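Q&A FORM
Asked by: J.P.
Topic: structure of Dienelactone hydrolase domain-containing protein

PROVIDED:
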Amino acid sequence: MASADSLTKITIKRNGNGETEFDAYVLGEAGAPGIVVLQEWWGVDFEIKNHAATIANKGYRTLIPDLYRGKVGLDIAEAQHLMEGLDWQGAVKDIAASVQWLKENGSKKVGVTGFCMGGALALASAVLVPEVDAAVGFYGTPNPGLADVTKVKIPVQAHFGELDGFKGFSDVETAKALEEKLKQAGVPHEIYIYPKVAHAFMNASPEAVKRGKAELGAPDLDTGVIDTAWSRFSAWFTKYLSA
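REPLIED BY: S.T.
REPLY: Here is the structure written out as tokens.
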């Protein structure tokens, strides 16, 4: 059974203005379908590593690119500052290099998933990174200036909480608007809005639950919703990455 402690740290190079390196964390068997797992606004912390391990245990090779270059937010103010300072176009290049690394190292097909900020980047990657085969986003949508989701060309699944209060980013109205845009794109898509849960409802570790209550006023953990979302996630990627 893979765990967050089993992740292997690697260095990936990407080409842009000169050559840029970034750290990434890999878990799972070479040759398995790959999934790039994208961080929340906190950074590459314990919870995104837990998600990568959960996904690896479903039969995938997971890779987390460190978009913040080692920095981790310890509270909302710091996380907000880090996200606002992110080079979003550069992050998309990191994701493209991560997809390429997985394909060059045995994964025939590669998906992208992400949570919060990472959910927005997963959907942006579905527009901007042609090598991605399918995407699943959790409670995040990209700014139209970064990516126009009506131009998505791959299958997209997305998950949102009914009580999510991040207007224009992951609230119910934004989720419904995303569904309309994906209809315009004409791609296979599924949008799920779960009752009685808020933002970051997939975070199940005791540390994350405590943080969610303290920092975001989150409701109690709903393991039934988490199980349902992971089941739908698995069915989606099995259909589009394992075929």
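FOLLOW-UP: The beta strands are 8-16, 18-27, 34-38, 61-65, 110-115, 134-138, 156-161, 189-194.
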